[in-house]
Amino acid sequence: MNNLPPCPACGSEFTYEDNGVFICPECAHEWSIGAASEDVGDVRVIKDAHGNVLQDGDSVTVIKDLKVKGSSLVVKVGTKVKNIRLVEGDHDIDCKIDGIGAMKLKSEFVKKS
């Protein structure tokens, strides 16, 4: 009877359509009809501070001094990070920085080199 897609945020099957937008009444999530058909691959695109698409194995440069939580170390502007891995979460870049070690970075503080 209801052939609308389930909510991508909470999985509820009680979604409805309103003016070209799907709406979930349980969590109030809204998404476009075109986005529902494109979610088949469910690929997350991660971009750097300048809008360039990042991929696993890329090299990036830090664009802001970043304090390392729990220590007095600082990742300086211009630090080049090689061979990044993209992961899920708020800090979406997993990498190893010379002199500091393994870290997670936010993509908004790096640019692709």
From TrEMBL:
Signal peptide: none
Coiled-coil ranges (or none): none
Domain of life: Bacteria
Protein YjdM C-terminal domain sequence ranges: 46-112
Transmembrane domains' residue ranges: none
Pfam families noted in UniProt: YjdM (PF03831), Zn_Ribbon_YjdM (PF08274)
InterPro entries: YjdM, YjdM_C, YjdM_N
Domain Protein YjdM N-terminal: 4-32
Family statement drawn from the similarity comment of this UniProt entry: Belongs to the YjdM family.
Protein name (record): Alkylphosphonate utilization operon protein PhnA
Source organism of this protein record: Methylomicrobium album BG8
